[in-house]
UniProtKB/TrEMBL annotation:
Keyword Cell membrane: yes
Chain segments annotated as transmembrane: 63-91, 120-143
Keywords assigned: Cell membrane, Membrane, Transmembrane, Transmembrane helix
Species, as recorded: Caryophanon tenue
Pfam families reported for this sequence: ArAE_1
PANTHER family recorded: P-HYDROXYBENZOIC ACID EFFLUX PUMP SUBUNIT-RELATED (PTHR30509), UPF0421 PROTEIN YGAE (PTHR30509:SF27)
Domain of life: Bacteria
Location in or out of the cell: Cell membrane
The name this protein goes by in its record: Aromatic acid exporter family protein
GO cellular component: plasma membrane
Transmembrane helix among keywords: yes
Membrane-topology annotation of the record: Multi-pass membrane protein
Length: 363
């Protein structure tokens, strides 16, 4: 079982919150630990936003708890009505993420009995805030996230798997059920990559030069993800129309295989080019040669469609499926060329990407 950074951070935040609460002789330090659990976030920026929401939510919960506690005492029904009011206010103010902790503050205050209700209410509110600030400090200094490394690692490994399955699919060498299961997993991994991209995008840089560099990186990473999506769409098409591909002439199948092998190799080279692991002269896209190859495949597609129109209707139906495959290939190629342009532009301004070490971070 792999223990992630967020799991470790949660444990450290709980310990820190309880320790600080005990050092300050808080009557119920457990509420600080509970607050720390709610306040842990996957990124520093989200932690900053969360602490602002939690402060507002706790204030609302504390104020409502004090008002209802003074008016109705410690009646169970009063606590329920107060909770409803707090939830309604929080939703109205779009503080949905802080509702849980606001309710914890509400209950922690309204269950207090005694003459010093206001003083204990203030102490309980402060105890909860200790947990919130403890979680923020842990997010800030303990195991700071490296989402750029995680993002590129996931893109690299995901694309490598897509390339392997595509090479099997275009040769009709993959087993249908296994490919179907793999496609489902690949779709889920693309969604995970998109989530990592959002987390990396949220990270803030306060140095002007770094802001500019990151803005250019975001453009490159976004195109990497788009190109990966296009390659996965192509794999879906190859899998869906594998029967039509298997019935094509061997010469035509060989043309498609050669074309796709060229594009897939080109994609591998682009990812290595971004990290400086590949010499520039070995990653050049010979446009004239590839243009001629593309025309050859296009002409052969047209010939197959013309031939299918002269045959039975089933063959005509399969020819339209071939058009879908051709469109995916062309779309994939265009995105690869655009990615190449962005990587070359980035490297010309900022040099080789040194923050990502394939051997250290991947293996």
């Amino acid at each position: 079982m792999k223990v992630g950074a967020r799991v470790l951070k949660t444990g450290v935040a709980i310990v820190l919150a309880l320790f600080v609460a005990q050092m300050l002789n808080a009557p119920a330090p457990v509420f600080a630990g509970i607050a720390a659990v709610f306040a842990i976030q996957p990124s520093i920026y989200r932690s900053y936003l969360t602490i602002l929401e939690q402060i507002q939510g706790n204030l609302i919960g504390a104020i409502i708890a004090v008002i209802f506690g003074l008016m109705f005492g410690h009646q169970l029904v009063a606590i329920g009505i107060a909770a409803i009011i707090v939830i309604s206010i929080m939703i109205k103010l779009k503080l949905d993420k802080a509702i849980s902790l606001a309710l914890v503050t509400l209950i922690a205050i309204m269950e207090i009995q005694g003459d010093d209700f206001l003083m204990f209410a203030l102490i309980r509110f402060g105890t909860v805030m200790i947990g919130v600030f403890a979680a923020f400090i842990v997010n800030l200094i303990f195991l700071p996230p490296r989402y750029e490394v995680k993002l590129f690692k996931n893109i690299y490994v995901l694309q490598d798997d897509i390339i392997r399955w595509t090479r099997l699919a275009v040769r009709q060498a993959s087993e249908h059920t296994s490919t179907k299961k793999a496609l489902t997993k690949l779709d889920n991994r693309v969604s995970e990559v998109a989530t990592l991209y959002d987390l990396y995008k949220e990270e803030r840089n306060y140095v002007r030069n770094k802001k500019f560099v990151k803005a250019r990186k975001l453009v490159v990473y976004r195109q990497m993800i788009t190109t990966t999506r296009k390659s996965l769409e192509l794999l879906h098409r190859l899998h869906k129309h594998e029967n039509e591909l298997s019935s094509l002439p061997d010469q035509f199948n060989l043309l498609i295989q050669t074309r796709l092998d060229s594009l897939l190799t080109y994609h591998e080279q682009l990812l290595l080019k971004f990290t400086g692991k590949l010499k520039p002269e070995h990653s050049k896209w010979t446009r004239e040669e590839e243009y001629l190859r593309g025309n050859e495949v296009m002409e052969e597609f047209i010939n197959q469609i013309i031939l299918s129109r002269e045959n039975i209707e089933e063959e005509e139906f399969s020819s339209y499926h071939l058009l879908y495959i051709l469109s995916r290939i062309l779309d994939y190629e265009e995105n690869l060329e655009h990615l190449d342009t962005l990587i070359v532009s980035y490297r010309s301004y900022h040099g080789i990407e040194k923050n990502i070490d394939l051997e250290q971070d991947f293996y």
